[in-house]
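lol so apparently i was supposed to do this last week
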Amino acid sequence: MTKAFMKKRAIWMLLLATVLGGASCRIFKPGIAAYPIGLSFPVVEDASMSFKGRIISPVRERGGAYFYSTENGFVRCVDGLEKQVIWTFEANSGLRTAPFLGREKIYVYDKADVLYCLDPQGKLSWKKAVGEKVLTPVVEDSGRIYFGTDQGILWSLDLRGESPRRFKAGAAIHGGPMVLDSGIIFGSDDGKLFLIDPQGQALGGFRAPGRIIGPLASDGKIVFFSTETRDFFGLSLKRLKPKWKVRLGGYVQIDPVLKGERLFLLSTNSVIYCLKKTSGDVLWWQNIPSRTAYELAVIEDKVVVSTLSSNLLAFDVVTGRKIGEYKMAQDLKANALWIDPFLILAHHDSQTDDGRFVYLRKDVQALLSVQKASPQPAGDEIPFIASAIGFFKPNYEFYLKTGEKREVIQKASEKNTWTWYADAEGSYSVGVNVTDEKQSREIEIPYVIDKRPEIIAESPLMKGKDTRTWYADADGSYSEGVNVTDEKQSREIEIPFVIEKRPEKIAESPLMKGKAAMTREETLELVRKHLKNRNLIKHCLAVEACMKAVASRLGQDPEPWGMAGLVHDLDYEVTEKSPELHTTETVKILNELGIDPLIVHAVQAHAGKVPCGNAMDWAIFSIDPLTGLIIAATLMHPTKKLRAIDLEFVKRRYKEKSFAKGARRDEIEQCVNIGLSLDEFIAICIQAMQGIDQNLGLA
Ligand SMILES: [Fe+2]
Ligand SMILES: [Fe+2]
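anyway here it is w/ fe (ii) ion bound
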């Protein structure tokens, strides 16, 4: 192999590795979203705890307890979850700082620059008048403490407050101190950063372009700090030279927070920055809509900003996207503190001097709504919709309660809707149990089902009217008479009438008993004569089949019902352009043929030309749109076969509002007027159409 070839091969292998590496990243990275841990939004107030005095931010946490001090001179330690004060320490005068938690002791100083050292039980170990204004936190390490003053002195004391050492800087010390492996590092107002050893020997330094502002941070390799020139530095600790610096819109006066490779900064221009700690690249930044001065809280994948107003905001640490907020009733007075599962905020009312810790927890709620208010009649369709707040991939189990009895009516699944076809009157509760891996909530709606509406009786044609149609059944000589009466008088009159033998044809297959009528074949012939569109003929056949099936279910004679269905759109093609005329031509044709007025009425009723007055009318009114929906649903099925679909399949389509919009659901639902539930009604029609699937071309 030549060198050139080997080089080429190496490059090629590298490329391949990159490609494969990239590919595997794409395959494996998205993964399955894990159950969120830590803080989740939305949050609600769960509890609160009162105290007196103005709190001094920040509140600090250790081991599930939190520590805070108040301007009126108290330091307290509170059991975070029990919400109980573990101890209280009272200083001689008002305090100026929050407590600093050392490894062994707790430190705080007052307005008279007296430094107090407390043991972990809150008892005073010692106190010392420093005589200078302490400007920095008190930092404890390896049996000594360190702090800086306005006189430019970095103090070091042992844990008894004795054997002082003083290192003199050129100006007041605001930056640090921080104790690292390589020494103690701090910054002064003349822009100098110092590295000294515990004995106070200078190990090195760095001159910044301006005053070193506030707190320092370090990961052990880089030290991070802000200057009054609005520069933010990442300084190599080893070489004490900048690895990078960025110009921000303001200074960073509160502790920078390191989390993995990210560095979070809150600057005085109300911007939160996320920098890459090794390069200073700005990964993202966000404007904070109000001023801020409290420490950031990084809780798992969220960075939480507590503002000087009543707003709390949370951002995704990776993308910077705002992923939660909370608005307190009053202004916030400290940082937000996380003690799982609570986010604890502080407030203080300066009028009354009352302070309050507000405990927020994740809002977890199951919600249930119903689209029709209770009560509804039996047989009605009542849709319920559930939703969930604060759940991760929730499942919904619907149940029905009757008295003490509780019955699951829809097993737990992702489906959050359930439609109730209530059969029997009574008092119920419809409930949903929402669950995910770790939590559950239930909610119920009490619901009353009234009596099923009466099936609208076939109106007797001529009761109380002044005409009567005689459907003479048998041949013979008759007299048809009328007795006319009113309150005070009466008269009778008779007409003799001879009925001849029934013609053969009618006897064979009478559509309408005792009436001159057409056979089914003749009716179909009539339809074919008037309608050329094959789909329209199929539609008529479908309506016919459904009408017959529904008639049978209701104990009615299927023949006239079927005929009404078959002829209902007879004039469709001639009235297509003037829908207002739809059925007028049909009525003429049917009347000429002497078709039963009930059938004619049903034909008119299907198109809303006359109000529905009986079961046949309501049936054709609801069936007409339903057949269209069933055919459309069948065409959606991969097999395009009527026999492949069932009620569930059609119901799914039915619920999609945009699906086959022309098949008006409100019309279909009029099946309630013939005493059928929507489900039963649809099921009957599916079955009826399946019976003629060959004729419908959907076999
Ligand atoms: Fe029609
Ligand atoms: Fe129709």
